[in-house]
């Protein structure tokens, strides 16, 4: 009985979700790794250069589960670069005290 109810609900839900996508909206096909790398870079940059915390604290602060993003810190340029699965990555750099860290596109 539960399986039948679940099948009916899923059958009704799929067309609704498919209709949510409209032309003109951006699709995110690999969004999980894109978001993980971007948020990790931005948050690590903010932790290190705005909040002025130590590297060990910031690495623990931005650690995702599962840990897929690798973190590279460039203290000289005040930038943080992340990568995941060789194809996805992001870079954030410290601008100033007013603007903090920004993602570089």
Automatic annotation (TrEMBL):
Cross-referenced PROSITE patterns: PROKAR_LIPOPROTEIN (PS51257)
Top-level taxon of origin: Bacteria
Keywords: Signal
Protein name: Lipoprotein
Signal peptide positions (record): 1-18
């Amino acid at each position: 009985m539960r399986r039948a109810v679940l099948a009916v609900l899923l059958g009704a839900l799929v067309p609704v979700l498919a209709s949510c996508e409209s032309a003109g909206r951006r699709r995110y096909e690999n969004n999980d790794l894109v978001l993980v790398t971007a948020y990790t870079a931005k948050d690590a940059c903010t932790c290190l250069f705005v909040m002025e915390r130590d590297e060990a604290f910031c690495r623990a602060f931005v650690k995702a589960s599962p840990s897929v993003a690798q973190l590279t810190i460039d203290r000289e340029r005040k930038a943080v670069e992340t990568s995941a699965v060789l194809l996805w990555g992001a870079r954030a750099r410290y601008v100033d005290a007013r603007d903090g860290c920004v993602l570089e596109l």
